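I had to read the description of the data format several times before I understood it. For illustration, here is how one protein appears when written out as sequence plus structure tokens:
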Amino acid sequence: MYYSDSIIREMQAEKLMALQLDKAVNDVGKQVLETAARIKDGATRAIYYTSCFTDNYQDVCSKLKSEDVRFGEGLYQLFRDRRIVYDLIEVYFKDVLQHKTQQQLEFIKWRLFKLGLNISTSSLTADSLTLGITTTVCLSLGFSPLVVGRVRALAGGAVGAAGLYGYVQQAAESADRLKLWGPGYYHALYLRKLEMMYFIVEPIFVKARAFENAYLSDDDIVNIISRMAK
């Protein structure tokens, strides 16, 4: 009996170690691919800048310079406030909920509760529900490791010049997509000089399918919140 238990424990330990090793290898692999893609994007953006030497492409050059400046402004807010992910999520839900009636807000909160998301609010207003939803999403266990990794890399300054410029290119492409699929949200972020930081949370919005419908019903909003928080 003793030997059987010992063998079982050893097999369990070996299985656990194998799983941990497999996860570590996968995580490292993802980081390597992300870094390689970012450096490639940085090189691509540097090539784009050759348009500045051609008179016919000054509009492209102007757009690149504007994006660089806007990225720097967003990065400044990241260093200053250290809550940029919260702000990006909050702006979205503030826009989505601002014109909802009391009855609609109650329905949304009730539906979220039925889905296992108990949103804590001091009072049931659009602002308080926005606060509760944003907090729930940001603290959720399903929050994307890619989002967290990007924030840590940018906030910690652990990004080389090529890698940082890769982030600028990713941010520019992400902002262009947002302008197309979520113009209202893009405009709200632009006014706050945050549209170039949207790329940080884009995986969360893609997962939630936040821009599939131009006009969101109350049920659509509930489903988006649920997908973001799980």
